[in-house]
Amino acid sequence: MADPEKLFKVNVITPDGMTYSHRASIIEMRAIDGARSIMYNHLPILTPLAIGEVRVKRSQEMNQIIDHIAVNGGYLEFSNNTATIIADSAERARNIDVSRAKAAKERATKRLKVAKEKHDRRSLERAQIALRRAVNRISVYKSKK
Fold this sequence. Notes:
- The protein is an alpha+beta fold.
- 30% of the residues lie in helices and 43% in strands.
- The chain folds into 2 domains: 86 residues, Sandwich (ATP Synthase, domain 1); 46 residues.
- The chain has 2 helices and 8 strands, in the order ββββββββαα.
- Belongs to the ATPase epsilon chain family.
């Protein structure tokens, strides 16, 4: 008899509340110091996340479901077979309004250009973050296909 599938709980929480909650066999994300993968019975960990995609693999079976989530930074905490991601914002790929994300990318690109011309470091940093967030949302949206 095969071992039962070993799944753990994954929750993504934003200021608006619970954005995502499922059981998973593995989650993959980008921490600020590199890529991370978490599986069942992983040692406890608390790590800051970079702007990027979180991939939640919901099954070890052949018909594996992978959920793609755009996360704009935040933290991942894993303990007692529960992964909790706390982020300022997070969106599942299927919920991303790609036209809105493209418009945000255009606005950020314009703000970046203006900040460079004015040598405004603070505005430049904000525009770079806004651009990374918009590009991330577009990339995660495309990954769902």
